[in-house]
Structures are given as C-alpha cells and as structure tokens.
Design brief:
Length: 446
C-alpha cells in the first residue's frame, strides 16, 4: 500500500496517555491493519467490529483535549499551576453532555466530570490556592476566578499579612515606598535611614489596607498580557511596582501543576543509579571519608562568615569624616541646618587646601543655608504628597535639583552650597573605580 511502516505503541497503566496513543494509531492505520488481518484467515477474528471502532472514535474524540492539557501541565520549564483553573473550566465546559452524543460518550463525559469535581472543585482549600495562583498570573488575573470578590478578599488578606509580619524584611521597605528598583545608597541604607525619620513622617504614611487595595487595583487594571508571554518574565519587569503581590506570586508561580517533574527526577535517578552501579559506588565511599568531608565544609562555611564580619568591620571604620555629609541625602525636614553645613565646609577647606576654587566662604554659606532651609520646609509636605500620588519617591538628587532650580529662577546665588553638594556626591563608596583604572591599564599594556 506504499504507506510508512509504523509500530503500534504499548498501552502501559503507568504511562499517561499510552492507551489513547494506541487507539489513535489504530484508527489512523485501520485500513492497512484490516488488509493484513484479512490476508490471514486465521487472524480475521482479531479485527474489530464497526461498533467497536465507533467506540474507539468516541474515546479519542472525548479525551483528545485531556491529552493536550496533560502535555501542557507536565512541563517543567514554565509555570503550570497558574493555568490549572482556566484549563479545568475549559474541560468542564467541553465535557457537558449534548443531545447528539452517543450513550458511551455521555458516560465518559460524566466520569470525567465526576473525577474533576472530586479532586478539584469540591476541595475548597485546593481551589482557593489555585485561584490565588491564577490571579498572580498576569495572563489571567481575575478572568477565571469563580467568586471574584471572595478571591480578592483572600488575596488582600495575604498582602496585609506581608505588611504586618515583614517589618524587617525587604518587602517592608518596598511596600512602604512603592518605588522603582533601588540601587546604590538607596538600596543599601534606606532601611537604616527609616529609623531616623521623625515620628510625624511615620504617622503620615497611609494605612496598609489602603496601600494594598491600591496595589491590587493597579495590578488588575494593567494592560492585557498575551497568553504566550512568560509570567515570570512579566513579574521580573513589573515586580517593583507591586511589592507585596510580587512576593506572593514568587511563592505560588513556582508550584508545579502536576507531579510529573518530580517523577522524571526519580526516573532519571533510576536510570543512572542501577543495581550494579550502586554496589560499585558503595565500595569506594566510606563513612569516615564522608565525615571528613562534612567537617571540612562546615569549617569552611564558619570561616567564611568570620571573614565577612571582619571585613565589614574594617570597611565600616574606613569612611572617617565622610559620615558628616550624610545630611545631603535630605531624609529629614531639618537636614539642612547651619551646624551640618559648617562642619562639611570645614572638612572641605581643610582637605582641599591646594584647590582654591573649592574654598568655601562661611559668611556666604550661612545666608545660602537659611534660604535653602526655608525652601525645603515650605515644599516638604508637597513632596510627601507626590510620593503617595505618583507611587515614586523623590530622590535626594531631584530635591537638590529643584532647590537649585528655584534659586536660579529667583536669581539667588549659592556657590558655596553647590560646592558641598558636588563634593558629597562625588565621594566614592569603594575603591572599585580606582581599581578599574588599574585593570584597564593592565589590559592596555600587555
């Protein structure tokens, strides 16, 4: 018949979809199989009757969707649990009996729906977890949630719990400020600066309930995401805008929709560690060697932490007088005052004696500090409101730029204050910039 020779796959109880593959292969090759059996009179009895072939066709038609869904949920290189609820709803919709269905098809659909109800829809705790996982997937959000308000309430409660129990963790900083990705000194020292804030600043922060509601609302109103887009990539790009939801999504989207990935690990382990291979390995490895390895690893880790602490102590004490310039970060209303400015001016004048252009005039500086302090105090409340409405905290650099811009518009000269600002923001935090120069020179002179 000039057809490609194909083998019939085996139906194995422990291999998902193997029976369905066998039925599909038989239906696709029904003609050559029938011809082969008719060529041997003693084998004619093996050929299926027409009603049996119709039953196989009904089986394939009713379960082909299950095969596609099973293949998708068996993946291990992408998120699967978040798509369970949408796929379950699709199966439930497709398995609804029709008047035109034959009796066998109706029975199969009824069995499938019964199994889905038993394992999923009737298990409230599991469905609550799956609904939360689906909402955290930007491709679905609330589109497939059964009771949308109930799911939102549960999710808001989880977000509130994060605010209440994560005061000393990174989520606390990001949830209080709702700022874009932090870097530099803002990332390293902002949590420390929070301890120095005035009590009035803490009291002005909106209630956590209001914050999580705004965060969830903004997330739900984000533009629609394509179904072929990776939700983990989406969260990597937008996670900083939704600090508490990001933490919840990170926990839930890692969940696998099936046990297939873990079963693959055991299968691979069984192929690698065979009976003979395991016996040879036991002859080589002994308990004494394992204890020696464990102790050496423990000592290495203990020594690593001791060295880290010693290095941090040395690094912390190496800044000297540069801590006197911390006020230029403008984290407080009264950050700019004469005492701080005078101390900074003395350091600059004493350390840059050979740079006359950097010499600071204290008399002029006093007048500049008074005007700057007046401007900051009159605009501080407005800046705090901008932090809340724009969901982006105003950086210290932007505050200084606004201040100097105000001086320029009103023809106010502030050369001495500008020198302090330039000096403070040019101080390197590490020797990395100098070391890069030597690295570049070394590469160039080879």
């Amino acid at each position: 018949m000039q057809m490609k020779t194909l083998r019939l796959p085996s139906a194995c109880p422990t291999r998902w979809g193997s029976t369905l593959k066998l039925c599909k292969r038989f239906l696709d090759n029904q003609l050559p199989i029938s011809k082969a059996l008719f060529d041997y009179p003693s084998k004619k009895c093996l050929m299926l009757e027409q009603n049996e072939v119709s039953a196989l066709e009904d089986l394939v038609e009713s379960t082909i969707l299950m095969e596609d869904i099973t293949k998708h949920l068996s993946g291990e290189k992408y998120t699967t649990a978040s798509s369970l609820v949408p796929l379950l709803q699709k199966i439930k919709k497709r398995m609804q009996p029709k008047d035109t269905d034959r009796r066998l098809v109706k029975e199969m659909k009824s069995e499938i729906l019964s199994a889905l109800n038993e394992y999923y829809f009737e298990c409230s705790e599991l469905m609550e977890l799956l609904n939360l996982t689906t909402v955290c997937d930007p491709r679905f959000r609330l589109n497939y949630a059964g009771n949308k308000e109930e799911v939102k309430t549960v999710l808001l409660q989880h977000m509130l719990d994060l605010y209440e129990h994560s005061a000393n963790e990174s989520i606390s900083d990001s949830s209080e400020n709702k700022n874009p990705k932090k870097c530099g000194l803002q990332k390293l020292l902002e949590s420390d600066n929070d301890d120095d804030k005035d009590q009035e600043t803490i009291d002005d922060i909106p209630l956590p309930v209001r914050k999580v509601e705004i965060e969830l609302k903004n997330y739900l109103y984000m533009p629609k995401t394509m179904l072929n887009q990776d939700p983990l990539t989406w969260w990597k790009s937008h996670g900083e805008s939704f600090p508490s939801l990001r933490v919840i999504a990170k926990k839930l989207l890692d969940v696998q929709g099936t046990s297939v990935p873990s079963e693959r690990v055991f299968s691979a382990g069984g192929n690698v560690i065979t009976k003979n291979h395991d016996q040879k390995s036991l002859k080589i490895i002994n308990c004494e060697g394992l204890f020696r390895i464990r102790n050496s690893v423990k000592e290495e880790f203990d020594g690593f932490y001791v060295r880290c602490i010693a290095y941090l102590d040395l690094w912390e004490n190496s800044f000297g007088k540069t801590e006197q310039f911390a006020w230029v970060n403008l984290t407080k209303t009264n950050a700019v005052d004469w005492e701080n400015a005078e101390t900074s001016a003395e350091i600059i004048n004493s350390s840059l004696l050979d740079v006359p252009d950097m010499k600071i005039n204290n008399d002029e500086l006093f007048d500049e500090v008074v005007l700057a302090k007046e401007y900051l105090q009159s605009n501080w409340e407005q800046w705090k409101q901008e932090d809340t409405t724009r969901d982006v905290i105003i950086s210290s650099e932007e505050k200084w730029l606004r201040l100097f811009g105000h001086f320029k518009e009103n023809h106010i000269a502030a050369p001495n204050l500008i020198k302090i600002f330039e000096y403070a923001f040019c101080l390197p935090g590490t020797s990395a910039s100098v070391e890069r120069v030597f690295s570049l020179m070394n590469n160039a002179l080879r």
